[in-house]
Amino acid sequence: MNQRALLLVNRQARRGQEALTQAIAHLQGWGLDLLEESTADPQQLPDLIRSYRDRVDLVIVGGGDGTMNAVTEGLVDTQLPLGILPLGTANDLARTLCIPTDLAQACQIIAEGRVQRIDLGWVNGKYFFNVASLGLSVQITQQMTKEVKRRWGVFAYLTTALRVVRQSQPFRAEIRCRGESIPVKTVQIAVGNGRYYGGGMTVVEDAAIDDNRLDLYSLEIQNWWQIIPLLPAMRGGQHIKSSKVRALAGKEFEVHTRRPRPINTDGEITTYTPATFRVVPKALSVLVPNSPTPTS
After folding, report:
1. Does residue 133 sit in the same domain as residue 235?
2. Residue 137 has pLDDT above 60, yes or no
3. How deeply is 11 buried, as exposed, middle or buried, from its count of CB atoms within 10 A (0-12, 13-18, 19+)?
4. How many domains does the chain contain in total?
5. Has the keyword Lipid biosynthesis been applied to this entry (predicted)?
6. Measured in Å, how far apart are the chain's first and last C-alpha atoms?
7. Cβ(132)–Cβ(273) below 8 Å
8. CB of 175 within 8 A of CB of 248?
9. How many other C-beta atoms can be found within 10 angstroms of the C-beta atom of residue 144?
10. Residues 32-67: pLDDT tens digits?
11. Measured distance CA(18)–CA(62) in Å, rounded
């Protein structure tokens, strides 16, 4: 008996509309029975998944990291496995899980791959796959339009980041971890659950999405140009070795600021400080390659 799958595709994703017909053909070719749904409001996606709880065997989601983030509550509640079609700009969750952007290969993984349990991050009631952060990343999110992402792809992150960094001003925050209170003056605090974020930047060099921990770093530079020497190291997660970067690992963190500051979760602004961050171990199932190979 063929598996029945709920197919949700963000038609506004960078490759969404053009890839939909191709994806359906590939998935049906692998014997999947597809039930396609779409909505213009990402907030409706969890309820849509819940409504199919007893009618499908898995949920296939096509889009970028923002779309993946939008479905987490529905997946956690139903415990339906997730199949990923990486159709967005950064596709950091797919990169973390070694799922290629080639659509035919991604469809084969959904049909023939293995099921892996992965952790989720949680902040103030919001789940995240990759990273939750405040500071520079929020400003990048606020300035990067859909048109820029669609035109320039992953390079949109770099060009926008360079512009934002030159305008950045350090802010004061308090990080609480394991009973310790740490005052910092920083331009960014990032809390990672997965391995990649921001179009291929690495949280820390040994980060994994199933390691039952969160990795926090605080970028404590005083002048914008001090980030330039750190950029190559940030691709491989070795920036934490710098004296300008504070790194912590744990299962829970709190971050307090003098005034509420917005927090970005997987590329979307979803909550504000004060914030409590937690890891949720083995929270859901994802279809991944049987023999994973690193993606670039």
Report:
1. yes
2. yes
3. middle
4. 2
5. yes
6. 36
7. no
8. yes
9. 20
10. 999 999 877 888 999 999 999 999 999 999 988 999
11. 12
